[in-house]
Amino acid sequence: LILSLGSVNIDIIAYSDRLPRPGETIHASRYAMGLGGKGANQAAAASRLAASLGLRVELAGRTGTDAFGELARTHLAGFGVGLSALRSDPDHPTGIALIGVDANSENMITFAGGANMELDVTDVDAIDALLRQTRVLLLQLEIPMPASLEAARRARAAGALVILDPAPAPLDGLPDEAWSLVDLVTPNETETERLVGIRPTDAASAALAADRLQAKGLTRAIVKLGARGVFWRDGRDSGFVPPFQVQAIDSVAAGDCFNGGLAVALARGDTLGDAVRFAAACGALATTRRGAADAAPSFDEVRALLG
Ligand code: ADP
């Protein structure tokens, strides 16, 4: 079982020539609505791949009891994600992201967390049985930290591998406890800079950043460099995976598809180096499609790109 504990949102994206100024109303040329939230995106990406390998994916989190909650569930079920651990909170609305995108792809995002921000240790109690069956636990930073840390503690105790995507970039780094409760962190450039004070731009600077991540107490670390590729370290082993050549049109959720793919590859027993190559192909394919969860590639697409 692969379990993602994290945020579930509905993304509402309006496309216009330019973004509005305060007090102004503008016309959008079109808009789109889709499933988002890092917890949901990573679960959806993993689930789309996992079916081919006989692996199961569940999402733990909270939505409201509103129409957006229903919509999120419908999307997630379409990806084959198990929803037994997704709670409906009658007192808070489903999380939404209001996104404006202009003609230059510049964006502006207001995130209203709603029910996501209410996740607490009672949610973790409710998934105790699932945590005991979990092989890989996926965490991110869009829900309150105490819930994530408690889930990491229990999953670890039951033998799971815990992957933390430190995204969105934490303002004051991670609490000390987090470093001892996770097996693997997967920061991008900005997140790496927030965590260890180095902004990686190539394999050499990513290696330096990975050293510092390891010094925090981890054996394994992955540093994502967007269109420049990805660096990984496992104990003394390390490697750099150059970017797969694709027609990138939208980088939204590349990192989430990367982490979904990483979880699937590690759950089937890949070495970290092989898993990172698989994940990088997932991330690259995600940039060839618009949307968040909707950009997730299929197993056959990933296999074709890996050659
Ligand atoms: P995030 O979305 O967390 O910022 P990145 O943008 O670094 O994550 O993307 C995650 C991974 O996806 C990268 O490390 C890389 O392997 C792959 N990727 C992202 N953008 C591209 C691209 N334009 N071309 C090829 N691969 C890409």
TrEMBL record:
**Cellular-component GO terms for this entry:** cytoplasm
Residues annotated as binding ATP? N188, K224, L225, G226, A227, R228, G229, G255, D256
The Swiss-Prot or TrEMBL record describes its family as follows: Belongs to the carbohydrate kinase pfkB family.
Protein name per its UniProtKB record: Ribokinase
The entry's keywords: ATP-binding, Carbohydrate metabolism, Cytoplasm, Kinase, Magnesium, Metal-binding, Nucleotide-binding, Potassium, Transferase
Give me the reactions it catalyses.
Answer: D-ribose + ATP = D-ribose 5-phosphate + ADP + H(+)
User: What is the protein's major site of localization?
Assistant: cytoplasm
Q: Which organism is it from?
A: Lichenicola cladoniae
**Which pathway does it take part in?**
Carbohydrate metabolism; D-ribose degradation; D-ribose 5-phosphate from beta-D-ribopyranose: step 2/2
Q: Kindly give the CDD domains that the UniProt entry links to this protein.
A: ribokinase (cd01174)
Q: What class of enzyme is it?
A: transferase
Q: Where is the signal peptide?
A: none
Q: Which InterPro entries match?
A: Carboh/pur_kinase_PfkB_CS (IPR002173), PfkB_dom (IPR011611), Ribo/fructo_kinase (IPR002139), Ribokinase (IPR011877), Ribokinase-like (IPR029056)
Cite the cofactor comment. Requires a divalent cation, most likely magnesium in vivo, as an electrophilic catalyst to aid phosphoryl group transfer. It is the chelate of the metal and the nucleotide that is the actual substrate.
Could you provide one GO biological process annotation from this protein's UniProt record?
D-ribose catabolic process
Q: What job does this protein perform?
A: Catalyzes the phosphorylation of ribose at O-5 in a reaction requiring ATP and magnesium. The resulting D-ribose-5-phosphate can then be used either for sythesis of nucleotides, histidine, and tryptophan, or as a component of the pentose phosphate pathway.
In this chain, substrate is annotated as bound at: N9, I10, D11, G37, K38, G39, A40, N41, E142, D256
Per the record, the gene is rbsK
- Highest taxon of the source? Bacteria
Q: What is its EC number?
A: 2.7.1.15
Localization of this protein: Cytoplasm
Quaternary state and interactors: Homodimer.
Enumerate the PROSITE patterns for this protein.
PFKB_KINASES_2
